[in-house]
Amino acid sequence: MPGRAALLGLLTLQAVAFTVTGLVLWRLSGRPNDAFVSFHTDEIVSGIALAGVLVGVAYAAFKGLPRLSERLVRAQADNFAFLEKPLPLWAIVMVSLGAGIGEEALFRAGVQTLASDYVGVPLAIGIASALFAIVHLAKSPIAMIIFAIGVLFGYLYWISGSLLTVMIAHALYDVFALWYVQKEMHRLGVFAPKEGADES
């Protein structure tokens, strides 16, 4: 497992690569660079509001369905092994910003936009959301949730036309999700050595 600095560096490079690839796909669709992302107050407000709704729903589900919540947290142990040494809040924010910006640029502005020109919007949303889920390398129950979130972001991007809105919503939701999963993994002892693990 790479150290914290190396991990953050790799995730930053991934975010840059995803963003550049998304812009390339956007350009291949024949759309101008200056329409890739816009910056308006209403888009920022919408992104924050959407994140608030997502966080509220997720928190209510986690607290209302504790057994399911524990199962989902434990199912992510392998993918989130880097959380064994807890990340400080600033690092969680950095990881979340990279995911929100890079993944939305690639899957929504890039894949979904280009695919919609050939197969229509509904199927394009499905394709982008499936790739979005696959990239996370999650186990089946988590992959289904990620796919559903991808469909939601894809639909909202389609009706709003705002990449900034979904970037902000994604990043802010990820701050909560990463913080919560990290907290729960340590509370549940997910990283604690299993009995007999050191026996020969």
Automatic annotation (TrEMBL):
It comes from the Bacteria. GO terms for biological process: CAAX-box protein maturation; proteolysis. The chain crosses the membrane at residues 44-66, 87-106, 118-135, 142-158. One of its GO terms (molecular function) is metallopeptidase activity. Residues 87-176 form the CAAX prenyl protease 2/Lysostaphin resistance protein A-like domain. InterPro entries: Rce1/LyrA-like_dom (IPR003675). Pfam families: Rce1-like. Keywords: Hydrolase, Membrane, Metalloprotease, Protease, Transmembrane, Transmembrane helix. This is CPBP family intramembrane metalloprotease. It comes from Alteriqipengyuania lutimaris.
